């Protein structure tokens, strides 16, 4: 494991969001397991082998932080949330709606008091940490807001939302304490809830539920801040704010402006991974609300949705534009999202995926040499 001083540099100048395309061998094994053709132990062996190869590829591409690529997950969020006490997955009536496509039908529901006693992803991280070598083992989990936004609450479990929030925060605090004990020093919270407040349509959807969008945004910030409030000083916590990523499509659009003060001046995270790969994300002006010299801004200027490589000079110029609002020393570079937020993956080849990662590292080396 790297020393705390090294880890504290996370997020790194050339970094990544976390998920990677599932290799065909892994897809076939998971399909076989679903049909009962192989045992859980046989699947785990293949997952272990493919994650080991993935870690080596990440290191060879120049990344200083490595993940397990979500190789043991179907979804970036549901798989983790179902591991909390009181939360169960279920077969929903329909999938989540993206731009012209729909996910598999899946949902989560709160059937009992939310809590943390143990979690199967602790073992997943333990394996990653053991094989990371001189790289930093990075764990990505959904923000607690994803339970508030995605879960159905069974009748009679919670009389009011504040009781749910209290238990949810406690559960995350418990998980964070435990994962730190396992050696985690780089934790990322993935969160699509913020995108609800970026557009008029999204804010209207909140109002239709009888809620005030600004008050809900403040709640989202409070839940995150309280969940990470007890973290040790040498645990770096970042957040990835996403507008949706499924088979190279998106769910929402809009600038960060509407909640920029809450995000950039209100969240107590150490770094923010932000989408800036196309015009749907707006300009860099909202970054003017970054008032903390210790907050890293990771610019997602390289798209994970399509294989064509961005022009290096254009990316460098955009980093320069962003430095009008945030000192370049606080800026980093990454893809705007993972390559496979769900096991289906984006419409990009594995070769193109690795070209993108090497592109990020190469440009970062040139800008921050």
TrEMBL record:
GO terms for biological process: methionine biosynthetic process; methylation. The keyword Methyltransferase applies. Keywords: Methyltransferase, Transferase. Transmembrane segments: none annotated. GO terms for molecular function: 5-methyltetrahydropteroyltriglutamate-homocysteine S-methyltransferase activity; zinc ion binding. The keyword Iron does not apply. Residues 17-344 form the Cobalamin-independent methionine synthase MetE C-terminal/archaeal domain. It comes from the Bacteria. NCBIfam families: PRK06520.1 (NF005085). PANTHER family: METHIONINE SYNTHASE. This is 5-methyltetrahydropteroyltriglutamate--homocysteine methyltransferase.
């Amino acid at each position: 494991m790297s020393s705390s001083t090294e880890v504290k540099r996370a997020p790194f100048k050339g970094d990544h969001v976390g998920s990677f395309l599932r290799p065909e061998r892994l897809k076939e094994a998971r399909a076989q397991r679903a049909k009962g053709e192989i045992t859980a132990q046989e699947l785990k062996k293949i997952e272990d082998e493919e994650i080991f190869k993935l870690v080596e590829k990440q290191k060879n591409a120049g990344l200083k932080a490595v993940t397990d690529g979500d190789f043991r997950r179907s979804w970036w969020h549901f798989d983790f949330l179902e591991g909390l006490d009181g939360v169960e997955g279920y077969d929903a009536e329909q999938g989540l709606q993206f731009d012209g496509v729909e996910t598999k039908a899946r949902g989560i529901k709160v059937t009992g008091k939310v809590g943390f006693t143990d979690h199967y992803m602790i073992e997943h991280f333990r394996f990653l940490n053991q094989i990371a070598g001189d790289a930093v083992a990075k764990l990505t989990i959904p923000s607690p807001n994803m339970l508030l936004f995605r879960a159905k609450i069974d009748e009679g479990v919670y009389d009011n939302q504040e009781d749910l929030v209290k238990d949810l925060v406690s559960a995350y605090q418990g998980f964070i304490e435990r994962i730190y004990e396992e050696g985690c020093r780089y934790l990322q919270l993935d969160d699509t809830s913020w995108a609800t407040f970026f557009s008029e349509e999204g804010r209207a959807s909140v109002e239709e539920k009888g809620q005030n969008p600004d008050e809900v945004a403040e709640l989202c910030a409070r839940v995150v801040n309280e969940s990470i409030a007890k973290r040790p000083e040498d645990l770096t916590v970042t957040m990835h704010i996403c507008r949706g990523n499924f088979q190279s499509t998106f769910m929402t659009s809009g600038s960060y402006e509407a909640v920029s003060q809450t995000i950039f001046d209100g969240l107590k995270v150490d770094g923010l991974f932000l989408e800036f790969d196309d015009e749907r994300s707006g300009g860099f002006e909202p970054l003017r609300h970054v008032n903390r010299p210790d907050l890293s801004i990771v610019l997602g200027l390289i798209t994970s949705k399509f294989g064509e490589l961005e022009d290096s000079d254009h990316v460098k110029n955009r980093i320069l534009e962003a430095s009008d609002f945030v000192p370049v020393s606080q800026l980093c570079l990454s893809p705007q999202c993972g390559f496979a937020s769900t096991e289906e993956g984006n419409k990009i080849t594995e070769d193109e995926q690795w070209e993108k990662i090497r592109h990020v590292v190469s440009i970062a080396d040139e800008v921050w040499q």
